[in-house]
Amino acid sequence: MSITRAGCAALDSADPLRGFRAEFVLPENVVYMLGNSLGALPRRTIEAVSHTVTAEWGRDLGQSWNTAGWWDLPEVIGDRIGNLIGAGPGTVLTGESTSVSIFKVMSAAVRLRPGRRTVVVESEGFPTDRYAVQGLAAGFDLNVRDFGPEGSLADSLDDDVAVVLLSHVDYRTGALRDMAADTAAAHAAGALVIWDLCHSAGALPVEVGAADFAVGCTYKYLNGGPGAPSYLYCAPAHLAEAEPVLCGWHGHAAPFAFEADYRPATGVRRFGAGTPPILSMSALGASLELWDKVDIRSVRAKSVALTELFIALTEPLGLDLATPRDPAGRGSQISFRHEHGYPIMRALLDHGVHGDFRAPDIMRFGFTPLFLRYVDVYDAADTLAEIIGKGIWQDERYQRRVTVT
Ligand SMILES: *Cc1c(COP(=O)(O)O)cnc(C)c1O
Fold first, then answer.
1. Span 116-132, mean pLDDT?
2. What residue stretch is flagged as signal peptide (predicted)?
3. Mean pLDDT score of the chain, rounded to an integer?
């Protein structure tokens, strides 16, 4: 049975999440399949940020640290993110970039396993995750062990491994790992585990479960805005002993005592370092309001339906699918390997379909069920077929590399 655009429109009419698209500012005639890189702008964010700028900053000035609750925002917003990842109150802190959060939790985790000198990272993991660990390892004389996509995690573990850092969803292929099973494998070897949730929180149900630490960014599926702060999770069992190497006054037990020496705050606040980006926190707080109304299971169900639809519609093109074919094994993206992936994605963008390219050869399409419609997926597949079928991508202007691919 062939899929028609009218059939897709019917699916949109019956979609339980259909009301959420109107919550976002989206340009006309654009199919936005880049929400896995930078989420779209929620309408309410405009109002919220404007209020923070004009009333809180412009009128109440420095008093807003108290009166507008700025001081507590990292924990208040952290608790709201905690709801999306199965983490209890007081275990999640927002602030800084994901790279910095990885450094913080990795350093704290290594200190919780004295005597063990090896950390395991994914060879195909997001580079910044690897770089943060490599920097820490260079400074603290740790061994970094690569764990490849084909190998079994258990084979990379031994009694020298202090910490394992894993991505829940692979940023290139979209492959989804079994968090509970990998966490159990790491623990069986006496290691701690840190999960990177950048491509899963907000895209599918996440349960930190027995994980020791987790980190994630908020500008992808959570739509927090460019440069929105990351979050970190610390399991309750580690909260009293975990001490990050990166210390600052926002993590001090008594920041306004201005003591000469560092003493960690109680609770997850100890992971604080410098002054948080309040304007970005304001934007993030607004976008999280949407999540209070969303059933994440509906998000996952629609994500599976949208990705299945895209695979079915693009099947005649004979592309090399890099994403697991079984929906249970993938996040909310579809990737194809293609030697001309870069110019194809540039041509698509020029025709109103936003996706991206990840070197060396990955064409990546993100599916954000809150605003992406079935008809959008139909149109994207149609445009992709035209660009490949007619060789439109061969135009010289699509070959030029821009800074951000
Ligand atoms: C997007 C992403 C990051 C981003 O790190 P930043 O420090 O926030 O720029 C890190 N890790 C993974 C796996 C990502 O997908």
1. 97
2. none
3. 97
- With pLDDT > 70 as the criterion, what percentage of the chain qualifies? 100
Average pLDDT for 31-47? 98
Distance of CA 67 to the CA centre of its chain: 31
Q: Is 378 a catalytic residue?
A: no
Catalytic residue list contains 397: no
- Evaluate whether residue 117 is within a structural domain: yes
What is the tally of structural domains in the chain? 2
Q: Are 97 and 54 members of one domain?
A: yes
User: Is 121 exposed, middle or buried, given 0-12, 13-18 or 19+ CB atoms closer than 10 A?
Assistant: buried
99 is in an annotated binding site: yes
Q: Are 62 and 78 in contact (CB under 8 A)?
A: no
Which residues contact residue 219 at a Cβ distance below 8 angstroms, ignoring those fewer than 6 apart? Answer: 38, 39, 225, 226, 227, 228
Ligand 1 nearest-atom number relative to CA 217: 8
Type of residue at 152: S
Identify the burial level of 122 via C-beta atoms within 10 angstroms of its C-beta, where 0-12 means exposed, 13-18 middle and 19 or more buried: buried
- Please name the residue whose Cα sits nearest to atom 6 of ligand 1: 98
Q: Give the CA distances from residue 331 to residues 216, 266, 320, 335, 352, in Å, rounded to whole numbers and listed in that order.
A: 15, 35, 18, 11, 24
Ligand 1 atom with minimal separation from the 199 CA: 15
* 106 domain-assigned: yes
